[in-house]
Amino acid sequence: MPPFPTVAAYVPPGVGMLAVGIVTEVFGPHGSLPGFDFALCADRPGPVPTDHGVPLSIPHGLDRLAEADLLIALPGTDFRTPPAGAVLDALRAAHGRGSVVAAHCVGTFALAAAGLLDGRRATTHWRFADLLADRHPEVTVDPDALYIDEGSVVTGAGAAAGFDLCLHLLRREYGAAMANTVARDMVLPSHRDGGQAQYLAAPVPSDSQDERLAEVLGWAREHLHEPLPVTELARRALMSKRTFARRFTAATGTTPHAWLRSLRLSRAEELLETTDLPIEEVARRVGYASAAVLREQFVRRRGVPPRSYRRSFTSVP
Prior knowledge:
Strand order of the largest sheet: 2-1-5-6-10-9
Distance between the termini: 11 Å
Largest sheet: 6 strands, mixed
Protein backbone atom coordinates (compact mmCIF):
# COMPACT_ATOMS: atom_id res chain seq x y z
CA MET A 1 0.00 0.00 0.00
CA PRO A 2 1.23 3.56 -0.63
CA PRO A 3 2.17 5.62 2.47
CA PHE A 4 -1.02 7.72 2.53
CA PRO A 5 -3.59 6.52 0.00
CA THR A 6 -6.39 8.39 1.77
CA VAL A 7 -6.05 12.18 2.06
CA ALA A 8 -8.57 14.44 3.78
CA ALA A 9 -8.48 18.22 4.14
CA TYR A 10 -10.40 19.95 6.91
CA VAL A 11 -12.24 23.01 5.53
CA PRO A 12 -12.99 25.50 8.35
CA PRO A 13 -15.38 28.45 8.09
CA GLY A 14 -13.76 31.26 6.11
CA VAL A 15 -11.34 28.83 4.50
CA GLY A 16 -8.70 30.29 2.22
CA MET A 17 -9.54 29.68 -1.43
CA LEU A 18 -5.83 29.41 -2.22
CA ALA A 19 -5.40 26.69 0.38
CA VAL A 20 -8.29 24.67 -1.07
CA GLY A 21 -6.78 25.06 -4.52
CA ILE A 22 -3.37 23.87 -3.33
CA VAL A 23 -4.49 20.59 -1.74
CA THR A 24 -6.96 19.88 -4.53
CA GLU A 25 -4.32 20.51 -7.17
CA VAL A 26 -1.81 18.21 -5.50
CA PHE A 27 -3.99 15.38 -4.15
CA GLY A 28 -7.32 15.72 -5.95
CA PRO A 29 -8.33 14.13 -9.27
CA HIS A 30 -5.20 15.21 -11.11
CA GLY A 31 -3.52 13.83 -14.21
CA SER A 32 -0.06 13.57 -12.69
CA LEU A 33 -1.20 11.95 -9.43
CA PRO A 34 -3.65 9.13 -9.97
CA GLY A 35 -4.74 6.95 -7.09
CA PHE A 36 -5.30 9.21 -4.10
CA ASP A 37 -8.64 8.89 -2.32
CA PHE A 38 -9.10 12.60 -1.64
CA ALA A 39 -11.88 14.29 0.34
CA LEU A 40 -12.72 17.81 1.46
CA CYS A 41 -14.34 17.66 4.91
CA ALA A 42 -16.15 20.19 7.09
CA ASP A 43 -17.91 20.14 10.45
CA ARG A 44 -20.89 18.90 8.47
CA PRO A 45 -21.51 18.43 4.74
CA GLY A 46 -22.85 21.46 2.92
CA PRO A 47 -21.89 25.03 2.03
CA VAL A 48 -18.90 26.57 3.83
CA PRO A 49 -18.05 30.29 3.53
CA THR A 50 -14.61 31.19 2.17
CA ASP A 51 -12.29 34.13 2.68
CA HIS A 52 -13.58 35.61 -0.60
CA GLY A 53 -17.23 35.31 0.36
CA VAL A 54 -17.98 32.61 -2.20
CA PRO A 55 -19.36 29.49 -0.45
CA LEU A 56 -17.97 26.06 -1.25
CA SER A 57 -20.11 22.94 -1.20
CA ILE A 58 -18.17 20.44 0.92
CA PRO A 59 -19.37 16.86 0.43
CA HIS A 60 -17.98 15.17 3.56
CA GLY A 61 -18.19 15.50 7.33
CA LEU A 62 -15.78 14.65 10.12
CA ASP A 63 -16.10 10.88 9.69
CA ARG A 64 -13.85 10.99 6.62
CA LEU A 65 -11.45 13.28 8.46
CA ALA A 66 -10.73 10.85 11.29
CA GLU A 67 -10.21 7.96 8.84
CA ALA A 68 -7.61 9.65 6.61
CA ASP A 69 -4.00 8.47 6.30
CA LEU A 70 -2.95 12.08 5.67
CA LEU A 71 -5.00 14.84 7.27
CA ILE A 72 -4.41 18.49 6.35
CA ALA A 73 -5.98 21.29 8.40
CA LEU A 74 -6.55 24.24 6.06
CA PRO A 75 -6.33 27.88 7.19
CA GLY A 76 -9.46 29.95 7.77
CA THR A 77 -10.36 33.47 8.80
CA ASP A 78 -11.75 32.35 12.18
CA PHE A 79 -8.50 30.75 13.33
CA ARG A 80 -8.40 32.81 16.54
CA THR A 81 -11.38 30.78 17.77
CA PRO A 82 -10.48 27.12 18.41
CA PRO A 83 -12.36 24.58 16.27
CA ALA A 84 -15.31 22.68 17.73
CA GLY A 85 -14.54 19.83 20.08
CA ALA A 86 -15.60 17.27 17.47
CA VAL A 87 -12.97 18.64 15.05
CA LEU A 88 -10.24 18.49 17.69
CA ASP A 89 -11.30 14.93 18.56
CA ALA A 90 -11.06 13.95 14.87
CA LEU A 91 -7.55 15.44 14.63
CA ARG A 92 -6.44 13.60 17.75
CA ALA A 93 -8.06 10.34 16.63
CA ALA A 94 -6.33 10.42 13.25
CA HIS A 95 -2.95 11.18 14.81
CA GLY A 96 -3.48 8.59 17.53
CA ARG A 97 -3.91 5.78 15.04
CA GLY A 98 -0.76 6.72 13.12
CA SER A 99 -1.94 9.16 10.47
CA VAL A 100 0.24 12.02 9.31
CA VAL A 101 -1.32 15.32 10.37
CA ALA A 102 -0.29 18.54 8.61
CA ALA A 103 -1.26 22.19 8.39
CA HIS A 104 0.09 25.38 6.90
CA CYS A 105 -0.48 29.06 7.51
CA VAL A 106 -3.00 29.66 10.33
CA GLY A 107 -4.29 26.10 9.95
CA THR A 108 -1.45 25.36 12.38
CA PHE A 109 -3.59 26.89 15.15
CA ALA A 110 -6.02 23.97 14.90
CA LEU A 111 -3.22 21.45 15.48
CA ALA A 112 -2.00 23.48 18.44
CA ALA A 113 -5.51 23.63 19.91
CA ALA A 114 -5.71 19.83 19.63
CA GLY A 115 -2.46 19.51 21.59
CA LEU A 116 -0.65 17.87 18.66
CA LEU A 117 2.15 20.44 18.67
CA ASP A 118 2.96 20.22 22.38
CA GLY A 119 6.70 19.73 22.83
CA ARG A 120 7.30 20.09 19.08
CA ARG A 121 8.72 22.68 16.73
CA ALA A 122 6.19 24.28 14.39
CA THR A 123 5.79 27.17 12.00
CA THR A 124 2.97 29.29 10.65
CA HIS A 125 2.56 32.48 8.64
CA TRP A 126 5.28 34.80 9.93
CA ARG A 127 2.69 37.49 10.69
CA PHE A 128 0.95 35.25 13.26
CA ALA A 129 3.96 33.44 14.72
CA ASP A 130 4.02 35.58 17.89
CA LEU A 131 0.32 34.97 18.46
CA LEU A 132 0.79 31.21 18.15
CA ALA A 133 3.73 31.31 20.56
CA ASP A 134 1.79 33.43 23.09
CA ARG A 135 -1.27 31.20 23.02
CA HIS A 136 0.66 27.93 23.07
CA PRO A 137 3.91 28.36 25.04
CA GLU A 138 4.40 24.58 25.00
CA VAL A 139 5.05 24.84 21.23
CA THR A 140 8.45 25.95 19.91
CA VAL A 141 7.44 28.33 17.13
CA ASP A 142 9.94 29.08 14.36
CA PRO A 143 8.70 32.16 12.47
CA ASP A 144 11.32 31.83 9.73
CA ALA A 145 11.03 28.25 8.49
CA LEU A 146 9.19 27.44 5.27
CA TYR A 147 8.01 24.13 6.75
CA ILE A 148 8.97 21.94 9.70
CA ASP A 149 8.82 18.14 9.61
CA GLU A 150 8.30 16.51 13.00
CA GLY A 151 7.55 13.08 11.59
CA SER A 152 3.85 12.45 12.16
CA VAL A 153 3.15 16.21 12.38
CA VAL A 154 4.23 18.64 9.66
CA THR A 155 3.58 22.39 9.63
CA GLY A 156 4.16 25.02 6.97
CA ALA A 157 4.30 28.77 6.52
CA GLY A 158 1.67 30.97 4.92
CA ALA A 159 0.02 31.23 1.53
CA ALA A 160 1.87 29.43 -1.28
CA ALA A 161 4.15 27.64 1.22
CA GLY A 162 1.30 25.12 1.28
CA PHE A 163 2.64 23.90 -2.05
CA ASP A 164 6.09 23.44 -0.50
CA LEU A 165 4.59 21.46 2.37
CA CYS A 166 2.62 19.16 0.04
CA LEU A 167 5.60 18.62 -2.25
CA HIS A 168 7.77 17.86 0.77
CA LEU A 169 5.30 15.21 1.94
CA LEU A 170 5.25 13.64 -1.52
CA ARG A 171 9.04 13.69 -1.68
CA ARG A 172 9.35 12.20 1.80
CA GLU A 173 6.87 9.37 1.30
CA TYR A 174 6.93 8.70 -2.44
CA GLY A 175 10.30 10.01 -3.57
CA ALA A 176 11.72 12.86 -5.58
CA ALA A 177 10.47 11.64 -8.96
CA MET A 178 6.80 11.96 -8.02
CA ALA A 179 7.30 15.32 -6.29
CA ASN A 180 9.22 16.65 -9.29
CA THR A 181 6.53 15.43 -11.68
CA VAL A 182 3.89 17.37 -9.77
CA ALA A 183 6.12 20.45 -9.52
CA ARG A 184 6.77 20.45 -13.25
CA ASP A 185 3.07 20.02 -13.96
CA MET A 186 2.28 23.05 -11.80
CA VAL A 187 5.35 25.00 -13.03
CA LEU A 188 6.79 25.25 -9.51
CA PRO A 189 10.30 24.87 -8.12
CA SER A 190 10.81 21.15 -7.51
CA HIS A 191 12.23 21.59 -4.03
CA ARG A 192 12.65 24.36 -1.48
CA ASP A 193 14.36 23.36 1.71
CA GLY A 194 12.28 23.68 4.87
CA GLY A 195 14.91 25.85 6.52
CA GLN A 196 14.67 28.45 3.79
CA ALA A 197 13.33 31.78 4.97
CA GLN A 198 9.60 32.19 4.32
CA TYR A 199 9.72 35.97 3.98
CA LEU A 200 12.08 37.62 1.49
CA ALA A 201 12.46 41.36 1.29
CA ALA A 202 12.86 41.35 -2.50
CA PRO A 203 11.34 38.17 -4.01
CA VAL A 204 11.09 39.74 -7.48
CA PRO A 205 14.15 41.12 -9.30
CA SER A 206 14.18 44.87 -8.78
CA ASP A 207 17.22 45.89 -10.80
CA SER A 208 19.78 44.63 -13.31
CA GLN A 209 21.84 42.91 -10.60
CA ASP A 210 18.87 40.81 -9.51
CA GLU A 211 18.10 39.95 -13.14
CA ARG A 212 21.68 38.80 -13.63
CA LEU A 213 21.41 36.77 -10.43
CA ALA A 214 18.27 35.02 -11.73
CA GLU A 215 20.07 34.18 -14.98
CA VAL A 216 23.02 32.72 -13.07
CA LEU A 217 20.73 30.55 -10.93
CA GLY A 218 19.14 29.17 -14.07
CA TRP A 219 22.56 28.50 -15.55
CA ALA A 220 23.70 26.71 -12.36
CA ARG A 221 20.68 24.36 -12.48
CA GLU A 222 21.80 23.25 -15.95
CA HIS A 223 25.45 22.78 -14.91
CA LEU A 224 25.18 20.80 -11.67
CA HIS A 225 27.81 18.37 -12.96
CA GLU A 226 30.40 21.16 -12.69
CA PRO A 227 32.12 22.32 -9.46
CA LEU A 228 30.28 25.72 -9.42
CA PRO A 229 32.41 27.62 -6.89
CA VAL A 230 30.87 30.81 -5.58
CA THR A 231 33.64 32.82 -7.24
CA GLU A 232 32.52 31.52 -10.66
CA LEU A 233 28.86 32.25 -9.97
CA ALA A 234 29.75 35.75 -8.82
CA ARG A 235 31.87 36.31 -11.93
CA ARG A 236 28.97 35.31 -14.17
CA ALA A 237 26.69 37.68 -12.25
CA LEU A 238 29.26 40.48 -12.73
CA MET A 239 29.50 40.96 -8.97
CA SER A 240 32.15 40.67 -6.31
CA LYS A 241 31.98 37.49 -4.24
CA ARG A 242 30.77 39.45 -1.20
CA THR A 243 28.07 41.33 -3.14
CA PHE A 244 26.93 38.13 -4.82
CA ALA A 245 26.58 36.30 -1.47
CA ARG A 246 24.59 39.20 -0.02
CA ARG A 247 22.24 39.49 -3.02
CA PHE A 248 21.87 35.71 -3.21
CA THR A 249 20.74 35.43 0.42
CA ALA A 250 18.36 38.37 0.03
CA ALA A 251 16.77 36.76 -3.05
CA THR A 252 16.61 33.11 -1.93
CA GLY A 253 16.71 33.14 1.86
CA THR A 254 19.70 30.81 1.96
CA THR A 255 23.41 30.75 1.14
CA PRO A 256 24.87 29.76 -2.25
CA HIS A 257 26.48 26.66 -0.71
CA ALA A 258 23.24 25.50 0.94
CA TRP A 259 21.23 26.19 -2.23
CA LEU A 260 23.61 24.18 -4.39
CA ARG A 261 23.75 21.32 -1.90
CA SER A 262 19.96 21.08 -1.81
CA LEU A 263 19.79 21.17 -5.60
CA ARG A 264 22.47 18.49 -6.01
CA LEU A 265 20.82 16.14 -3.51
CA SER A 266 17.39 16.65 -5.05
CA ARG A 267 18.74 15.77 -8.50
CA ALA A 268 20.60 12.77 -7.06
CA GLU A 269 17.36 11.50 -5.51
CA GLU A 270 15.61 11.63 -8.85
CA LEU A 271 18.45 9.82 -10.62
CA LEU A 272 18.54 7.13 -7.94
CA GLU A 273 14.79 6.56 -8.30
CA THR A 274 14.43 6.68 -12.07
CA THR A 275 17.69 5.23 -13.43
CA ASP A 276 19.98 2.29 -12.75
CA LEU A 277 23.10 4.44 -13.10
CA PRO A 278 25.99 3.40 -10.84
CA ILE A 279 26.32 5.52 -7.70
CA GLU A 280 29.63 6.85 -8.98
CA GLU A 281 27.94 8.15 -12.14
CA VAL A 282 25.08 9.68 -10.15
CA ALA A 283 27.67 11.50 -8.04
CA ARG A 284 29.44 12.78 -11.14
CA ARG A 285 26.23 14.04 -12.75
CA VAL A 286 25.28 16.12 -9.73
CA GLY A 287 28.74 17.58 -9.20
CA TYR A 288 30.31 15.47 -6.44
CA ALA A 289 33.90 14.31 -6.78
CA SER A 290 33.14 10.70 -5.87
CA ALA A 291 30.50 8.27 -4.68
CA ALA A 292 32.01 8.57 -1.19
CA VAL A 293 31.31 12.32 -1.09
CA LEU A 294 27.73 11.78 -2.29
CA ARG A 295 27.24 9.07 0.32
CA GLU A 296 28.54 11.32 3.11
CA GLN A 297 26.18 14.15 2.11
CA PHE A 298 23.24 11.77 1.63
CA VAL A 299 23.65 10.15 5.03
CA ARG A 300 24.05 13.52 6.74
CA ARG A 301 21.10 15.22 5.00
CA ARG A 302 18.75 12.31 4.22
CA GLY A 303 19.62 9.88 6.98
CA VAL A 304 20.33 6.91 4.70
CA PRO A 305 23.03 6.02 2.13
CA PRO A 306 22.20 6.33 -1.59
CA ARG A 307 21.82 2.58 -2.13
CA SER A 308 19.27 2.28 0.68
CA TYR A 309 17.38 5.26 -0.71
CA ARG A 310 17.28 3.62 -4.14
CA ARG A 311 15.91 0.38 -2.69
CA SER A 312 13.20 2.31 -0.84
CA PHE A 313 11.82 4.15 -3.87
CA THR A 314 12.51 2.19 -7.03
CA SER A 315 9.31 0.15 -6.47
CA VAL A 316 7.13 3.28 -6.30
CA PRO A 317 5.16 3.79 -9.55
